[in-house]
Design goal:
Helices cover about 45% and strands about 20% of the residues. The chain has helices spanning about 35, 45-65, 85-100, 110-120, 160-170, 180-185, 210-225, 230-260, 270-285, 300-315, and strands at about 1-5, 10-20, 25-30, 75-80, 105-110, 130-135, 140-145, 150-155, 260-265, 290. A hairpin with a 4-residue loop joins strand 1 and strand 2 (about 10-20). Helix 4 packs across helix 10, helix 5 (about 160-170) packs parallel to helix 7 and helix 5 (about 160-170) packs antiparallel against helix 8.
């Protein structure tokens, strides 16, 4: 079964063709990072406009790379939630038009489910159940993956998501957007010498990063008021280490509790320190660890095509009046 995936939830315009939920026949991504970098973050209106301008061309490239045409696909899968509402609508409305003209079913896909499905694109033999930590700029969800379309949220960020906190701390340290990779590069040159809090969110597997972010901001502002210099490398290393510890401990504990594999997915899953620490903890507990190839960690349409395959098999299709939603759970 061949599925066209379309993803426009934030600032990447993406289209991909995926076979049987596992095999990527094409994956095209047009990133807007360089443009949004000028503003220190994503500008929703600009993102929406760029999606509208490029989605048709990107989709054509995906078809050409895969060697198929609209008549050769079985369904059109598209991200409908969560994300920037204007950006989501750009992709969703294009997908509706293509679905109608090609007479193919429209399959709505939750963006977080897409990140989980990215694991299947890299690990051909991975099957549920497993525990996945979806960690990105807007989301930090610890998910018990019971089946391909059956999920239970075990924990989540009660305030800032991990990627959001990384971006805000990077901005405080004068680093460019996107902040996560910049924090990592700076942290590699430093040592975790700053004492930072270990925030607790209440639930066993919930996470909180707002207080940790504020602690870093206070250190920087206090130093400025006193005319003191801060060691940016050490502060970045201290912050990254705390974020990594919060995420890795909860994932390893959750997987060990259920005696099933662990997985990292989402943009923050590319963080080398996070992978290394999580691998150490999982190895100590005898838990297998999986994460997608880097090309499938960030926002992409291949993961939407992969998730769309399983959603379609489960009978999930949408009428042409399907709406987009800025916020949404996994179920």
């Amino acid at each position: 079964m061949i599925i066209l995936g379309i993803e426009t939830s934030c600032d990447e315009t993406a289209a991909a063709v995926v076979k049987d939920g596992r095999h990527v026949l094409s994956s095209i991504i047009a990133s807007q990072v360089d443009e949004h970098k000028l503003y220190g973050g994503v500008v929703p209106e600009i993102a929406s406009r760029r999606h509208i301008e490029s989605i048709a061309q990107i989709t054509r490239q995906a078809f050409d790379q895969a060697g198929v045409d609209p008549g050769g696909i079985d369904a059109v899968a598209v991200t409908h939630a969560p994300g920037l509402i204007g950006a989501l609508l750009a992709g969703l409305n294009f997908a509706k038009g293509l679905s109608y003209s090609a007479k193919k079913p429209l399959v709505p896909v939750n963006h977080l489910r897409g990140h989980i499905a990215a694991l299947y694109l890299t690990h051909q033999n991975l099957e549920p159940p497993f525990v996945a930590f979806v960690v990105s700029g807007g989301h930090s969800h610890l998910v018990l993956v019971k089946g391909y379309t059956e999920f239970e949220v075990m924990g989540r960020a009660v305030d800032d998501a991990a990627g959001e906190a990384l971006d805000k701390v990077a901005r405080t340290l004068g680093l460019p957007y996107p902040g996560g990779p910049e924090i990592s590069r700076l942290a590699e040159k430093g040592s975790p010498t700053y004492a930072l809090p270990d925030p607790h969110a209440g639930g066993e597997f919930d996470v909180s990063f707002s207080g940790l972010k504020t602690a870093v901001i206070n250190i920087v502002n206090s130093a400025k008021m006193k005319g003191e210099e801060i060691n940016k490398e050490n502060l970045a290393a201290s912050f990254e280490r705390r974020v990594v510890e919060i995420l890795s401990v909860r994932l390893a504990n959750a997987a060990s509790k259920h005696n099933i594999p662990a997985a990292l997915c989402g943009g923050v899953a590319m963080n080398t320190a996070l992978r290394q620490r999580t691998h150490e903890l999982c190895a100590e507990k005898g838990v297998a660890l999986y994460y997608p190839h880097d090309s499938f960690c960030g926002d992409n349409a291949a993961m939407i095509g992969g998730a769309g395959y399983y959603e379609y098999l489960a009978g999930t299709t949408a009428p042409l009046n399907q709406n987009a939603f800025a916020s949404s759970g996994l179920n």
